[in-house]
Design brief:
The chain is about 65% helix and about 0% strand.
Length: about 500
């Protein structure tokens, strides 16, 4: 058993070392921000940098002689380790610089950022040092496209086995499809699109009325569909239709698969968007739910004008179903039907390969088409009709994999919900907390709604939420496969 553990674990740790070294140098960016603003928070980043750098070099040196070509299963272990360990070092500046914060709260905040969940346990965000707010949002931006995808793109030593890591981290049911012959080129292409959208978002926020610093950190959490803000009341701080419009546009764009953006860029045409079922369903659902929420708001409060109700509904609906988690209103005070509609839609609306969370729209489309085919074959048993999606015939393995994932996702969500209820949370808060974390939305309902945070939860409840964040970001199977006996057999 120990021989198998060493065979699988040490080569993965050999790759983890360089990733941690790269992550350590990323900590120098908020350190520079601290120096520029003279906010007094530099010590936390220096400590985190040193510890992360030493750990990275130590892991690489310790496991150097065990290096080998990575197996497909190694990608699952590596992704889980990276997404578990990097938040540990990301939490150090928070632990050092925020008085009275516990390790659980610091790790929760760090994991929340890197998984783009952006649920928070902190209050008085505008009073935090600028570098800490920058770091919280920057972690979300790094996690948006994926630390491992970034690593595959820029670290030559990860060229071997890059496909295993890419498939383990990249979201969606069509992980095997390649945009370019080499995985490293694919990763670079995706990050190129990500950088262009980030720059466009930042400039748009600046022109809409944000300050330079605000536009940078909110760009981080918009294109990553994260949702961290430097203000407790999120976008209600500005109450600015132009800023909200910019956020809506980029949340919609980043809810589309970055693979589709890449293909559209290569072909220099928007036809790719207009012919992609998942993209059309995502945009259609956003429009439909916004229309429903607008009508329900006007029925709930007859004094609301159409434009005002549409503005309130559009921003908060798109923010929730894209799993971003910004808020311009306390939607927990709205009719329960709107909240349920938004949170249920958030479970599946965003596209596979986007920076959003949830089960992904493509799997839902597969489920609907599969149910339709079953109805046809029930009436006409001899009919043979393949499942076609975006012009491709899907094999049974792909369809069953998607359906199995959805069943596992629903079962995991229900078990986590029951665990929080048993631990003492009311059902509304437990429902909102679980969906907020496993869908990587952030704010939930009840006591963890948009005008509150997760600080009232006990440590045990927070650790369950942390685990849900990890499961949601790595799409469950990547983590759960590590707990099977067959994974550790040679």
């Amino acid at each position: 058993m120990f021989a198998n553990l060493r065979y699988f674990l040490l080569p993965v740790l050999n790759i983890t070392g360089p990733v941690l070294v790269a992550f350590a140098f990323l900590l120098l960016i908020p350190l520079l921000v601290s120096f520029l603003y003279e906010d007094g928070a530099a010590a936390g980043f220096v400590i985190a940098f040193v510890l992360c750098l030493i750990t990275g070099f130590a892991l690489h040196a310790f496991s150097k002689r065990h290096r080998r070509e990575l197996l497909p299963r190694d990608g699952f272990l590596l992704a889980t380790i990276i997404w578990t360990v990097t938040p540990l070092f990301g939490a150090i500046p928070l632990l050092v610089e925020i008085p009275g914060i516990s390790f659980t709260h610091a790790y929760f905040e760090s994991m929340s950022g890197i998984t783009t969940t952006c649920a928070t346990v902190l209050s008085g965000l505008s009073e935090l040092p600028e570098s800490l707010n920058f770091w919280r949002c920057f972690m979300s931006w790094l996690g948006g496209m994926g630390i491992l995808v970034l690593a595959v793109a820029i670290l030559p030593m990860l060229g071997v086995g890059g496909s295993q890591m890419f498939r383990a981290e990249f979201s969606g049911p069509m992980k095997e499809s390649r945009l370019t012959p080499r995985i490293a080129d694919t990763a670079k292409g995706l990050w190129g699109i990500y950088l262009v959208l980030s720059l466009a978002c930042m400039l748009s926020y600046r022109m809409a009325g944000m300050t330079g610093f605000e536009s940078i950190i909110h760009m981080f959490t918009t294109v990553s569909l994260g949702g961290f803000s430097s203000y407790d009341n999120s976008f209600a701080h500005w109450n600015n239709p132009a800023i909200e419009s910019v956020a809506i546009v980029f949340m919609l764009v980043c809810g589309i698969s970055f693979s589709l953006h890449f293909l559209a860029w290569k072909k220099r045409s928007i036809v790719a968007y207009l012919t992609n079922v998942e993209c059309l369903c995502w945009l259609g659902m956003a429009a439909f739910i916004t229309a429903c929420a607008t009508a329900l708001l006007m029925a709930w409060d007859p004094s609301l004008e159409l434009v005002q109700a549409l503005r309130m509904a559009a921003f908060n609906v798109v923010s929730t179903i894209s799993t971003t988690g910004y808020a311009s209103q306390d939607y927990a005070l709205w009719p329960a039907s709107i909240c349920i509609l938004m949170f249920v839609a958030a479970c599946f609306c965003t596209s596979g390969g986007s920076t959003g969370g949830g089960m992904k729209m493509l799997r839902m489309v597969m489920l609907v088409k599969y149910c339709g085919l079953q109805l046809i074959t029930t009436v006409q048993p001899r009919v043979v009709r393949p499942m076609v999606l975006n012009g491709m015939v899907l094999d049974d393995k792909t369809v069953l994999s998607a359906l199995n994932f959805m069943l596992l996702w629903i079962a995991t969500t229900f078990i986590a919900f029951m665990a929080l209820v048993i631990s003492g949370l009311d059902p509304t808060t437990a429902f909102g907390a679980v969906l907020g974390c496993i869908c990587n939305i952030g704010p939930g309902l009840g006591a963890v709604g948009p005008n509150s945070n997760f600080s009232l939860l006990t440590d045990a409840q927070l650790w369950l939420c942390i685990f849900c964040m990890l499961l949601g970001r790595l799409e469950l199977v990547t983590v759960f496969v590590l707990f099977t006996r067959s994974f550790w057999k040679a």
